[in-house]
Amino acid sequence: xxxxxxxxxxxxxxxxxxxxxxxxxxxxxxxxxxxxxxxxxxxxxxxxxxxxxxxxxxxxxxxxxxxxxxxxxxxxxxxxxxxxxxxxxxxxxxxxxxxxxxxxxxxxxxxxxxxxxxxxxxxxxxxxxxxxxxxxxxxxxxxxxxxxxxxxxxxxxxxxxxxxxxxxxxxxxxxxxxxxxxxxxxxxxxxxxxxxxxxxxxxxxxxxxxxxxxxxxxxxxxxxxxxxxxxxxxxxxxxxxxxxxxxxxxxxxxxxxxxxxxxxxxxxxxxxxxxxxxxxxxxxxxxxxxxxxxxxxxxxxxxxxxx
Length: 307
Description:
This protein is an alpha+beta fold. It has seven helices and seven strands, in the order βββααββββααααα.
């Protein structure tokens, strides 16, 4: 699927076109062979176009025949896939800016229609604003995850098995975030370092500096939230271990208490002479002796906090 958008400084809002024109944004996803051929005819490299359709493509930057290819990953809100992020390639040529995602990136479509400063003819600034929209996605997702973990942390004693599964999923999602953001930051620095392939205006530099700072902060936040998730699981495991030890102590004490009358009755049930059973008060004496021993054992276990 190919969509074409265009907006110049003179336009009040972005326009949808039937075909690409110089200064337009090509919004591509779920590409067919005809779509790939069309993009090749516009001057984009076939190999990088194929790489952009790979769901597991890692962030990186490439430069080929006057076109900058920037690969990164954006947040997937749906849990239908095992990965928490999906790839998107942003290509900047002298005539077009192209984005290719494995599936439709709704946030990019929304961003182009909502941001008044999104001008497709200003390709570098448009590229940086796209990255800013991706960064905002990560920020919102991290805020949501942090709130969820805060609820788990407040009631860590009662965390259920389903909650633990959710925490493990959160850890996996955060790992994906960190794995996507670190190479994205490195790729962005590498791309900007190539002064001959990318020309930045003063406004672009300001946006870039803010963007780099935001990415570094998000990486630090993601690591912090990941550590919080690990701490919750570790705390829960310690609490479960303590509860299990207490339960085992109680069961052991109860077993010993029940063993006392078993031992005594076993002794007096043997076919040997014993002084008490033959008397008229034999049963009462044995019962009292058994009760006293049980009470003494129970008092001992209570002092040891086993009961």
